[in-house]
Specification:
- By secondary structure, the chain is an alpha/beta fold.
- The chain has 4 helices and 6 strands.
- It has a 6-stranded mixed beta sheet.
- Helix 2 (58-70) links the parallel strand 2 (51-54) and strand 3 (79-80).
- Helix 1 (29-44) crosses helix 2.
């Protein structure tokens, strides 16, 4: 069975409070609106992942929780992975290569520029920028997550909140 990796960039976040650290920035109203909408698109395509892994930064975790609610997944099942926050391609690859092989499809919630770089590194994506709350689904012809590496994936789908306006 092939592996599928769904990368999800956190929703639009709040910049209003200068006292908050970058790590603690919450989603703004658009971010809170976009997350369930994007999660629903994935649900309707029957592409809900078996595992949700997220950066512990507030905006990423809140996005992951919004998606999990739409997907009827217990929030307690969201795996927080500290190394996703401010991660580069190497750090993200380490996270993905360590995933349990019992999962066929996994969602990873994180940040740019890491996620965009990672999508382009793993697949033929050639994406300039994953917008906030954007999703990238890639498929890999492997049975083990540890086999994922440079350009082994195939881009199945790239979607983001405003894409519906472009049709």
């Amino acid at each position: 069975m092939a592996k599928q990796l769904l990368l999800v960039r956190h929703g639009k976040s709040e910049w209003g409070n200068s006292h908050l650290s970058d790590f603690d920035r919450p989603l703004n109203s658009r971010g809170l609106r976009n997350a369930p909408e994007m999660a629903t698109r994935i649900l309707h395509k029957d592409l809900v992942p078996q595992l949700v892994v997220s950066s512990p930064a507030l905006r990423a975790l809140t996005t992951a929780k919004n998606f999990a609610e739409v997907w009827n997944k217990p929030l307690s099942q969201i795996q927080e992975e500290t190394s996703i926050y401010e991660a580069n391609v190497t750090a993200l690859l380490k996270v993905v290569n360590k995933l349990s092989d019992k999962y066929e499809r996994v969602a990873l919630f994180g940040h740019n520029p890491g996620l965009t770089d990672f999508a382009n590194y793993l697949s033929n994506a050639n994406i300039y920028n994953i917008p906030t709350c954007g999703t990238v689904l890639m498929e890999f012809p492997f049975e083990k997550w540890e086999q994922l590496s440079h350009h082994t994936g195939n881009l199945l789908e790239f979607d983001y909140p405003k894409s519906a306006d472009e049709d």
